[in-house]
Amino acid sequence: MGSHAMMNPLDPEEFRRQAHVVVDFLADYYLNIENYPVCSQVEPGYLTKTMPQSAPLQPEPIETILQDVQKHIIPGLTHWQSPGFFGYFQSNASTGNFLGEMLLTGFNSVGFNWLASPAATELEIVVMEWLLKLLQLPKSFSFSSDGGGVIHGSTCESFVCTLVAAREKKLSQREADLGKLVVYCSDQTHFSLQKGCRVVGISPNNVRSIQTKKSMNFQLSPDALLTAIESDVRAGLIPLYVCLTLGTTSTTAVDPLLALSEIAKRFLVWVHVDAAYAGSACICPEFRHFLDGVEGANSFSFNPHKWFLTTLDCCCLWVKDQSDLTKALSNDYELLKNKASDTKNVVDYKDWQIALSRRFRAMKLWMVIRSYGVTGLQEVIRKHVKLAKHFEALLIADKRFEVVVPRNFATVCFKVLAPNASNEDSKRLTETLLDSLNASGLVYMTHVVREGVYVIRVAIGATLTEEKHVRMLWDMVQEHTTHLLASFADIE
Ligand code: PLP
What we know:
- By secondary structure, the protein is an alpha/beta fold.
- The chain has 15 helices and 11 strands.
- The chain has helices at residues 12-31, 46-50, 62-73, 95-107, 118-134, 155-173, 192-199, 222-234, 257-266, 304-307, 322-329, 339-343, 361-396, 423-439, 467-491; strands spanning 148-152, 181-186, 207-210, 238-245, 270-274, 299-302, 315-319, 401-403, 411-416, 446-450, 453-459.
- The N and C termini lie far apart (70 Å).
């Protein structure tokens, strides 16, 4: 590279050359991904100790930088795209997505209102309407009615925006003290709802986390919701918002949307349906029934960045009445004023989200949908569900394991059983099994504890996971359990 005066950070030919080098680097990463331990095995501080203390004064070539990525960064990565990744919920990716991400980053168009990038806004509307049809969401969520969809970065952001919309709507309807508003959820609801409540000024004392039971597969009970709401009303409080979940994080439970939203409606409570993980499955007709009752919701969201071949960050949110969102989130700033916005015939997405600036996320979602088509996306879901079903059947057939809750989608929850083992023994055995499987570096899973039961969660959904990887996992589960139970019997 020449002197500073000659440096052009956006030289098209340098961009072409360097981008090819990075694409080759990534293609090789994917070729070799199975050689890396799925969960990173570095110690805390490993990188800060190695990296120079100060930023380089002079420019460095891409080749040198990539050598450092290979040597220092890759060892500190947990390889979420590895076929042995069965942790949390997957964040699966695809070539179509990467190319879409390249385009949106390459354009770096900010798109806060229609004029700032008409294509960014209009493509988002197109994609959200495609998805609405694909999920068979009610027409009331469509731009052709009073509703509409927006792409947020995360479900947490969708929680905050819908909570603010519900809060402003309620406070505009009746004079009330913020301290009287109450939010309802279950003890299985994603913890980011609690954070969202704090952000919008709902006291933790006014968040009712209603207890669920294993005997009811951890669903939120309509009776329990009704009891909680009635008790708050009697106490002079104001029910505001209920979050229902389609596919809870711990065990993929599905709340009965219809019965719960009917109760909420009686008390003018805003209903949000969080389908972060399982929403993607509902593009297959055989899973669509899980969404029955969504018509009673005010808002619905799902994360393509989990199970839709789309990378972070991408959460699709629909609302039934777009003015609920825009009244709560719009601002009027001279710098942004323009004739198109003045007509009120355009969507200004800055009024549908927290931040002003926004990424052109519709580009990657559009690329994903076009690259694989509806049939390709359905095939991915069905493949993962089939693998999970098979894995579940193997566990059920082996007396050493218990499948703790029935599988709804592609996540299987199980624990180890042993003759004469107490609950405490079973917990210890299951935990030890998980640790030893993860220590192999070949697979990675995570756990939850529900009603005191320690459970291994196997979330099958990485793009590269094939039957042979699930077979390998099953072989490992059996082999490690055999050793474990032999030493347990010795101790006894
Ligand atoms: N809701 C559910 C059911 C989830 O499983 C998750 C994450 O796993 C979230 C919400 C949080 O999603 P995000 O990271 O997009 O905020």
